[in-house]
Design goal:
The chain has 447 residues and is of the alpha/beta class. It has 14 helices and 13 strands.
């Protein structure tokens, strides 16, 4: 940990940390299960993840009940095989997930809906187990995919082996681990925002085995609907391998800390502007250090202008202080679970660029005000909060009018009677709102 300690900086103000303590902000950053949590607001992020963890547990419980109920009703042999595999799998995964994250501390469970309503600060689509397939690919069946990624990157780095590197958005961490084992730098940091992934990696890299259940997307048979897997690393990670929980957009390091920054499968999924991410990467690199991107370039942002392609990304890198920019591309299987009928071929881009100039990152996000961070001062009645409260009240009213009997017209009449909107306008507004709700329900985004 000492090499890591030498380069750690406060994710709030950038001051060098002393044993995870910031003298500027007077804050001690916590450690959970040996993983330092170096985020600007550790209690806030912890409670967010705890909510998502409990939502994931509640979801597994309700799936398990649904599978058992369906099992009681079916007389089909094939359905029985599938449903009993699922019911057992959900039960096992519930136990495993509960014990893996137990250091987060379970609060008194609330309804699933309460957790859904309150998830706010992390990107809302990022669930605790969103990257579940990556976990099994990394530590169970995916050696071919993992070796291909490792070989591509280690070939690039072979002529200039790094002394220090960081992998941002490392996921379940196999690439960071493999590169550390083969290149032998003094320090490799695996940085990830999801505690399920950091806790798993910490245990696996330390030599533990972990039992989890995989639910393939399109199981190859009923019995393979839920598969008990034992995850393990080939060996205990060599000295200098560190796992931290942090936000790649507020990396907790002093400037110029690394020879190499790797961002596998991150630029298009991170909830940030690529040019801002590039500036953060630039700041982390020593002069002459290298950034390596490996993964897809498939932006699917709401704003058309933000859906940049590879050529734009290359241009942006040049604009952010990088030179000698090269890229290659190969079509390869991706998350190709052997027990699933579903698999993808992705065109995987590998891009390398050398830092030649400084790029200035956007100013740090402001510290959270005391009324949020400490919770003792009154919450200010901001105009934006008041209008949000009105919006929420109207949404709540619409949802409360759904009783299985009223039509859209009936609901619009209530809106008019409550002097919220003329009924003709209300009808189309309610229709638009319910289309959105239906879309969310169908896409599963609610979880
Ligand atoms: C598509 S996955 C790729 C994971 C891994 N690099 C791999 O190749 O398997 C993107 C990862 O980035 C992480 N991530 C997203 N936003 C992040 C952020 N702001 N800071 C750190 N990690 C982030 C996600 O939790 C997820 O593990």
């Amino acid at each position: 940990m000492s090499k890591l300690n030498d380069i750690l900086a406060c994710p709030r103000c950038g001051t060098a940390l002393q044993a995870l303590h910031c003298n500027g902000c007077q804050i001690d950053y916590p450690t959970h299960d040996g993983v330092p949590w170096l985020v600007a607001d550790p209690p806030g992020i912890r409670s967010e993840w705890r909510n998502r963890w409990q939502a994931a547990l509640a979801d597994l419980e309700s799936r398990q009940k649904a599978a058992r109920d369906a099992l009681d009703r079916t007389s089909s042999t094939a359905a029985t095989e599938r449903l009993s595999s699922l019911a057992d799998g959900y039960t096992h995964q519930h136990h495993a997930l509960r014990s893996l994250l137990s250091s987060l501390g379970l609060a008194r469970p609330a309804d699933l809906e309460t957790y859904l309503a309150l998830k706010t600060r992390l990107p809302s689509q990022m669930g605790l187990t969103s990257y579940q397939a990556n976990v099994f690919r990394d530590w169970c069946w995916g050696d071919t995919e993992s070796s291909a990624s490792h070989d591509t990157i280690s070939n690039l780095l072979a002529p200039m082996p790094p002394e220090s590197m960081v992998v941002l958005g490392a996921g379940a961490g196999r690439l960071a681990y493999d590169l550390h084992q083969s290149l032998g730098p003094d320090l490799s940091v695996s940085l990830e925002i999801n505690p399920y992934l950091t806790m798993l990696l910490k245990r696996l890299a330390g030599g533990d085995n972990v039992d989890l259940t995989e639910f393939p997307l399109a199981p190859s048979s009923g019995a393979r609907s839920a598969i008990r897997r034992t995850l393990s690393a080939p060996a205990v990670a060599a000295e200098g391998f560190e796992v931290i929980l942090a936000d790649a957009m507020r990396p907790p390091f002093l400037p110029a800390s690394f020879d190499v920054v790797i961002t596998p499968w991150l630029v298009d999924v991170i909830d940030a502007e690529p040019r801002e991410l590039l500036a953060e990467i630039n700041q982390l690199l020593k002069p002459g250090g290298h950034w390596i991107y490996h993964g897809s370039v498939g932006f699917t942002r709401a704003q058309v202008a933000e859906n940049i392609n590879l050529e734009e990304l290359l241009e942006m890198a040049a604009d952010r202080g990088f030179t000698d920019i090269s890229s290659t591309e190969r079509a390869s299987p991706y998350l190709d679970c052997p027990d699933s009928r579903h698999g993808r071929i992705e065109s995987i881009v590998t891009m390398m660029a050398k830092k030649v100039e400084e790029a200035v990152p956007a100013s740090r996000h402001q510290n959270l005000p005391d009324w949020i961070a400490k919770g003792r001062a009154p919450v200010p009645a901001l105009a934006s909060f008041r209008s949000q409260a009105m919006v929420t009240r109207i949404h709540a009213l619409i949802m409360s009018l759904i009783d299985g009997k009223r039509t859209l017209k009936d609901m619009a009449e209530v809106m008019e009677a409550q002097q919220l909107m003329p009924k003709d306008e209300a009808e189309s507004a309610i229709r638009g709102f319910l289309i959105k709700m239906l879309d969310e329900a169908r896409s599963g985004r609610a979880l």
